[in-house]
Every structure is written in C-alpha cells, then in structure tokens.
Write a structure and sequence with these properties.
- There is one protein chain.
- A five-stranded mixed β-sheet has the order 2-1-3-4-5, sandwiched between helices.
- The protein is 47% helix and 13% strand.
- It has 201 residues and is of the alpha/beta class.
- The protein has ten helices and five strands.
C-alpha cells in the first residue's frame, strides 16, 4: 500500500478521516492488518509528508498509535506526552499538522489505567512531573466528590480527554477557526489497554 500524497490527502474529508481510524482499529482488533511495504513507504515519503490525521496521545508504551489504528509511514502525526495534556508546544505541533501539512482530523486519545491521571488523582509530587500533573488537575477537580478507585480514575481519564479538547479550542484560535469552517474535526477517544478497543466519545 502506497503512502499518502497531496492528491490522496486532499480527497479525505474530516469525517472520512475518522472512518479511516475506526476501520483501522477494527482491523487491529481482528488481527487483520493491511499488508504494507514499509521500504516503499519510506521512499514514497522521502520528499514530503501528507498525513490525514494528528493524534495527541499519552506516552504509555501500551498505546502504539500507528499500530492500534493500523496505519503506515506518513499516515498520521503522533504527538505524545504523559496524560495527553495540551501545552504551547503541543498546540504548535498540531497547528502545523493541520494548517501547514493538511491533516483533516485531530484526535485526543486517552487510555485506561493511565498512570499520569492516576498520579494526579493521588496528588503525586515529584520533580518536573508535578508541573505536568497540574495540567490534569482540572479534570480531577471536575470529578470532585467521587472516590478515586478504579472506576473513579477511569471517569477522570474521560474528563481529561474532554478538557484537552477544550484547551485546543480555547488556546488555538487557528484550529478553532478551521473546525468552525469544517476544514477539520476535533474528537476524543479512550483506548482500553486490556482489549485494544478504541471508544470514541
């Protein structure tokens, strides 16, 4: 399967970009991957890249984004940071992906059993991790009054994805305008590390 080029990328709409990810996760669950010639894809993308989506996800080693959506080289931008939080650098990266490189979809992807969210719920303080966890605190605070057991933490994980989407819209007028003009779609999802399923919110 050939890598995306400018023409094939331009034919993908925000809705069809989402469908591509949904179909890819289904193939992952079925263990029915597309047969790709990665050497050819390296060659195809050597002079440029035209990914159809940008995924902001956690650094967790159990969530390899290209694999769980069955995508190849040059298909998606993958921005990874503990707790899939949004900051200025992440926003700049996603703005590049969409406004400059033409991606049609932004996916904020959380995952079950997230260590960063768990640490935020438990008020962990450790080096630079403390500052990072402070960006998850709004999701924790919005779930105040619940017990932070396994179910409670999973609720905060979902809320954290929603808060990250809110931050993208609030802190990036550029991306908000693109979404308003239907040039891109911004969606959230949670990956289940126990079974490989991505549940879109």
């Amino acid at each position: 399967m050939k890598a995306l080029n400018k023409e094939t990328q331009s034919q993908i709409s925000p809705d069809s970009a989402l469908e591509i990810l949904l179909d890819g996760n289904k193939r992952f669950l079925d263990n029915n991957f597309i047969d790709r010639d990665y050497s050819s894809q390296v060659n195809d993308t050597s002079s440029g890249q035209f990914p159809f989506a940008a995924v902001l996800s956690c650094i967790d080693s159990r969530v390899p984004v290209e694999l769980i959506f069955d995508q190849g080289i040059g298909d998606i931008f993958s921005a990874r940071v503990a707790g899939n939080i949004v900051n200025e650098d992440m926003l700049g990266s996603i703005e590049y992906a969409c406004k400059v490189a033409g991606s049609k979809l932004i996916l904020v992807l959380g995952h079950s059993k997230c260590g960063a969210v768990t640490a935020a719920c438990k008020d962990v303080e450790l080096g630079n991790i403390t500052a990072l966890l402070s960006k998850i605190k709004p999701a924790v605070e919005s779930c105040s009054g619940i017990e932070f057991d396994n179910d409670g933490i999973e609720r905060v994980i979902v809320e954290n994805v929603k808060k990250s989407i809110d931050c993208i819209r609030k802190d990036s007028p550029l991306l908000l305008e693109m979404e308003t003009n239907n040039e891109i779609k911004i969606v959230g999802a949670v990956y289940d590390v126990s079974n490989g399923h991505v549940k879109f919110l």
